[in-house]
Write a structure and sequence with these properties.
Order of helices and strands: HHHEEEEEHE
Oligomer: single chain
Number of helices: 4
Radius of gyration: 15 Å
Number of domains: 1
Strand content: 15-25%
Distance between the termini: 29 Å
Strand order of the largest sheet: 5-4-3-2-1-6
Number of strands: 6
Largest sheet: 6 strands, mixed
Shape: globular
Structural class: alpha+beta
Length: 160
């Protein structure tokens, strides 16, 4: 069941997002926070569209509130975060950074936030931004928007 942040909580979107991240093992949560911070610095004008889904916590980065126009997302699972390229199947990947075999999405594993500044990952990000239908705004600051929270979720921590 999808609900908007207005029907879920009176907390700010930032506080809600922090609560979603805090559900994970401390090491995964620290890495997710560091990767999110690096993406905010890299894409300061992008909106963050947050989906606390059944399987993953997904934070999409796009030029507006439309999910279909997100360029990348940070997908957090109990195994750790990954950078998902929404239209990754069409990106050149000479460095063989991307994983996945679907028709559209590809992802890069994030061992640390520094992975985001790896030249091969940065080249993929530049290419994804270049092919985006709607460019990111040149000025301003993106906002965090809680798009949905799944009532039923898989465990966010690895079993003991």
């Amino acid at each position: 069941m999808k609900k908007t942040s207005a029907t879920i909580s009176k907390e700010s979107p930032a506080k809600q997002l922090e609560g979603f991240i805090a559900k994970y093992d401390p090491a995964v949560a620290r890495l997710a926070r560091a990767c999110r911070s690096a993406l905010r610095k890299r894409l300061p004008t992008a909106n963050e569209l947050v989906y606390d889904n059944y399987q993953f916590l997904a934070i999409g980065y796009g030029p507006n509130e439309r999910t279909s126009e997100c360029v990348v997302s940070l997908a957090v699972s109990p195994k750790g975060p990954a950078l998902c390229f929404i239209y990754g199947a069409t990106l050149p990947d000479p460095g063989k950074v991307l994983f996945g075999g679907g028709n559209q999405v590809r992802f890069a594993r994030l061992e640390s936030a520094a992975t985001l500044s790896n030249p091969r990952v940065e080249a993929l990000l530049r290419a994804a931004l270049k092919q985006a239908k709607t460019p990111m705004p040149k000025t301003g600051k993106g906002v965090t928007i809680i798009k949905s929270i799944s009532a039923k979720q898989r465990p966010r921590r690895k079993p003991a």
